[in-house]
């Protein structure tokens, strides 16, 4: 796996759309390509959070309670942003529901770089915030339980 | 002129249990073929018990086979779903404005169905498949509460197996046997990779769901007049005179049930209009 | 030259209207109100009464010996042209199937004593029930046969605001016969003018006398009624103002006073909502029966999961904004004729004119 390969994968991922070249270079320095086998646990609630995954292929399930998957994260999407917002602990479980191809970002190193380079930090945080608000809206919709048959 | 209030008797030819509470009936309309457009509905009368508005869920190319998919949720739908082949229902219609399948020719078309919303969209989907060459990409995005609540699962599988369609299904809750996407149906729209300049969206499901679907489509840059929703209201006359289905300036039975978001979007912001 | 029917010959009018089997319906005093009921003889008419109306208040008091001295009761032509209860069709079982039969032939009617606002209400009902796509057969059959005999108002009630709705007080069109009741030193008479072929044929059969001095009787009385009308609805821009106020604060306030009784919609001459239900009997025969319904009833918007307008505030808003705003979109005109019945017969005395004004001007938010 070359840095070139990682950088190309990053450039092709929607999460990185619009990032300056320099930022891509920085990310590439702290990223690696992964293939995760079906059933593999990426993280569990309570563990230390120090990575993010940009999913390229496959499906990861997020469970908040007793392994019940509430949402799947799929190709083109960001998995995990706790470290980016200063919370170094996972709040959910994540498990590969299929074989998953992903780019793993090293949170420890990137957090360090973001402190030194606020414009990079801003770009990453903004993207994470977008992913988080999307999750929030969908959770609200899901909480409505819109397909529940009332009065039946 | 026929009296618009008087139903025509039609015999149930077949009955199929779709889910625990939902049934598909095929009525023999050979004596009085029902030429309907995708998205239209009929009024079904169970003798002596009452009448209810139900979307036609069958193939618009088969006017002699009138198909409805009915969920047993109310005082009329419950006894109707108990009927068997050979029993008779009264039918009025079809009524209402259809999905804009003609206007959509030449475009990419995305149907977004939630729960029972798949039933009114099925004729539109069948129309797209029957006239496949007239459309660009055709996508069917389906959301259900659980895998067991999915309507027409066998057909979904067959449609998904075609090379010229894109069919995606997501559920809100899944058991361990489910390997597909989990989450709300709007997520499928986010992932669809649509070209907003050439896409039309038609959606049917609970109002909250349609509101979020429209919001996501607008966010992607699809114009409001290319987003169509299908509304459910209390409909009793189906001809715009009983007043029950009034919604803003519209009678849902006559001016809908299919509406462009440009016309009705603002109403979704006001409770109880 | 004006022609008049001496009041002593009023029976001739009733007889002529009722010729060829027509049911004549006119103003009758009953249980303290003037209602519209079949009349055969003059004595049945509400002669000598005068109505006093105010928000939440209606009284009949003795008045001049006028036959048409009381203006408006709780009923309107709707009661007869669009009955409160009606059989749409009957059905009986036929093996596994069923057979339907049409309802009984509707009565042929002559409606006597209608006011300008009543005629305006009929014009609106025509648009709703005949002119917006599919005709309602029950209304169409009654409407096509009916004779409309209007009376020119000689005064206004406190609740009248027809002038501001441009529907009165002059009876100007839409009648077969227009009557103007005159009592003066020359006597007591009904000036009779025909507005249609049918009206002319009837007038020709009546023992009318020439009354040259009554040429302007109708317009004179209309002017008096107009001058005596103090209430008015500010209609300019009302549609837009109300639709801008859908999320305004006023609806919750009026809902604290409104009882949700639906009385306003029953007495309104243009409210057209109905509900249909099955009625079966011991022989297995079924009828589809249609009754007046109201957007004030919680069940009115029932879908599975509950009513879409569960809050009384939403239901009041629906009624008022439909009547005064979205009616324009649907039928090209306001749905209100300014008769004031909704205000008079509201048990809480809620005044449509006042509420429309308040709802349309209530501030929703600060800048």
What does this entry look like structurally?
The complex is a heterotrimer of chains A (152), B (273) and C (367). Chain A has one domain (3-136): Jelly Rolls. Helices cover 37% and strands 28% of the residues of chain A. Chain A has 152 residues and is an alpha+beta fold. In chain A, the strands form 2 sheets. Chain A has a 4-stranded antiparallel sheet. In chain A, strands 2-7-4-5 form a 4-stranded antiparallel sheet, with no helix packed on it. With 273 residues, chain B is of the alpha/beta class. Chain B has 2 domains: 8-95, Elongation Factor Tu (Ef-tu), domain 3 (Beta Barrel), CATH 2.40.30.10; 108-269, Nucleotide-binding domain of ferredoxin-NADP reductase (FNR) module (Rossmann fold). Chain B is 20% helix and 30% strand. Chain B has 7 helices and 14 strands. In chain B, the strands form 3 sheets. A 6-stranded antiparallel sheet of chain B has the order 4-3-6-1-2-5. The radius of gyration of chain B is 18 Å and the shape is globular. Chain C is of the alpha+beta class and 367 residues long. Chain C has helices spanning 10-17, 78-81, 116-129, 137-145, 162-165, 197-204, 217-227, 238-244, 250-257, 263-267, 312-331, 341-344, 352-361, and strands spanning 3-6, 23-30, 33-38, 49-54, 57-62, 85-94, 97-101, 109-114, 147-151, 177-184, 187-194, 209-210, 274-280, 286-292, 302-303, 306-307. In chain C, helix 8 packs antiparallel against helix 11, helix 8 packs across helix 13 (352-361) and helix 9 packs across helix 11 (312-331). The N and C termini of chain C lie far apart (64 Å). Chain A binds chain B through residues 59, 61, 68-72, 74-76, 97-98, 134, 137-138, 141-142, 144-152, and chain B through 21, 71-74, 114-115, 143-145, 149, 170, 172-174, 179, 181-184, 186-187, 190-191, 205-206, 208-209, 212.
């Amino acid at each position: 796996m070359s840095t070139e390969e990682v950088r190309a994968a990053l450039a092709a991922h929607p999460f990185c759309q619009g990032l300056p070249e320099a930022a891509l270079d920085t990310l590439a320095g702290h990223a690696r390509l992964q293939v995760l086998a079906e059933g593999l646990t990426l993280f569990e609630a309570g563990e230390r959070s120090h990575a993010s995954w940009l999913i390229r292929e496959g499906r990861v399930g997020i469970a908040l309670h007793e392994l019940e998957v509430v949402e799947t994260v799929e190709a083109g999407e960001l998995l995990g942003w706790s470290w980016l917002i200063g919370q170094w602990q996972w709040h959910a479980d994540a498990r590969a529901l299929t074989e998953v191809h992903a780019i793993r970002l090293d949170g420890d190193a990137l957090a360090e770089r973001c402190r030194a380079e606020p414009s990079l930090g801003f770009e990453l945080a903004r993207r994470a915030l977008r992913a988080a608000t999307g999750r929030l809206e969908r959770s609200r919709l899901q909480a409505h339980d819109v397909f529940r048959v009332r009065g039946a | 002129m026929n009296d618009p209030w008087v139903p025509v008797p039609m015999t149930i030819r077949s009955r199929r249990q779709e889910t625990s509470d939902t049934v598909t009936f095929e009525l023999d309309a050979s004596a009085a073929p029902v030429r309907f457009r995708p998205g239209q509905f009929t009024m079904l009368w169970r003798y002596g018990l009452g009448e209810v508005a139900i979307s036609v869920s069958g193939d618009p190319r088969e006017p002699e086979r009138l198909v409805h998919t009915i969920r047993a949720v109310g005082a009329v739908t419950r006894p109707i779903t108990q009927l068997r082949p050979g029993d008779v229902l009264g039918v009025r219609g079809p009524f209402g404005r259809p999905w804009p399948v003609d206007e959509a020719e030449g475009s990419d078309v995305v149907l977004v169905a939630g729960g029972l919303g798949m039933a009114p969209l099925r004729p539109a989907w069948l129309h797209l498949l029957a006239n496949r060459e007239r459309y660009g990409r055709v996508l069917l995005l389906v959301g259900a509460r659980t895998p067991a609540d999915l309507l027409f699962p066998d057909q979904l599988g067959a449609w998904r197996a075609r090379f010229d369609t894109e069919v995606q299904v997501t559920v809100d809750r899944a058991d361990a046997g489910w390997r597909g996407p989990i989450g709300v149906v709007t997520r499928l729209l986010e992932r669809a990779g649509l070209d907003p300049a050439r896409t039309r969206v038609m959606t049917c499901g609970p109002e909250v769901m349609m509101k979020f679907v429209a919001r996501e489509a607008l966010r992607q840059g699809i114009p409001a007049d290319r987003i169509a929703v299908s509304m459910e209201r209390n409909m009793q006359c189906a001809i715009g005179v009983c007043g029950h289905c009034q919604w803003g300036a519209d009678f849902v039975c006559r001016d809908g049930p299919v509406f462009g978001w440009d016309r009705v979007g603002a109403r979704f912001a006001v409770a109880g209009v | 030259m004006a022609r008049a029917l001496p009041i002593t010959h009023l029976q001739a009018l009733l007889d002529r209207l009722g010729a060829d089997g027509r049911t004549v319906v006119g103003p009758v005093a009953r249980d303290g109100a003037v209602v519209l009921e079949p009349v055969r003889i003059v004595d049945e008419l509400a002669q000598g009464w005068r109505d006093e109306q105010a928000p939440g208040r209606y009284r009949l008091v003795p008045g001049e010996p006028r036959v048409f001295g009381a203006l408006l009761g709780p009923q309107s032509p709707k009661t007869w042209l669009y009955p409160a209860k009606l059989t749409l069709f009957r059905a009986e079982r036929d093996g596994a199937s069923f057979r339907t039969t049409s309802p009984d032939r509707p009565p042929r009617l002559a409606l006597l004593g209608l006011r300008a606002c009543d005629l305006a209400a009929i014009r609106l009902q025509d648009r709703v029930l005949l002119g917006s796509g599919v005709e309602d057969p029950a209304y169409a059959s009654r409407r096509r046969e009916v004779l409309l005999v209007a009376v020119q108002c000689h005064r206004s009630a406190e609740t009248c605001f027809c002038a501001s709705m441009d529907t009165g007080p002059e009876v100007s069109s839409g009648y077969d016969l227009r009557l103007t009741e005159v009592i003066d030193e020359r006597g007591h008479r009904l000036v009779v003018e025909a507005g249609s072929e049918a009206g002319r044929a009837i007038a020709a059969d009546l023992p009318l006398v020439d009354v040259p001095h009554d040429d302007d009787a109708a317009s004179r009385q209309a002017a008096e009624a107009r001058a005596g009308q103090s209430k008015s609805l500010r209609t300019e821009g009302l549609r837009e103002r109300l639709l801008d106020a859908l999320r305004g604060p006023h609806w919750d306030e009026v809902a604290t006073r409104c009882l949700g009784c639906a009385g306003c919609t029953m007495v309104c001459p243009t409210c057209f909502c109905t509900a249909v239900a099955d009625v079966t009997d011991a022989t297995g025969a079924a009828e589809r029966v249609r009754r007046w319904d109201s957007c004030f009833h919680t069940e009115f918007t029932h879908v599975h999961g509950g009513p879409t307008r569960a809050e009384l505030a939403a239901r009041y808003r629906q009624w008022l904004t439909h009547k005064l705003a979205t009616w324009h979109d649907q039928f090209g005109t306001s749905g209100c004729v300014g008769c004031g019945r909704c205000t008079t017969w509201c048990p809480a005395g809620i005044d449509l004119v006042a509420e429309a004004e308040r709802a349309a001007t209530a501030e929703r938010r600060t800048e």
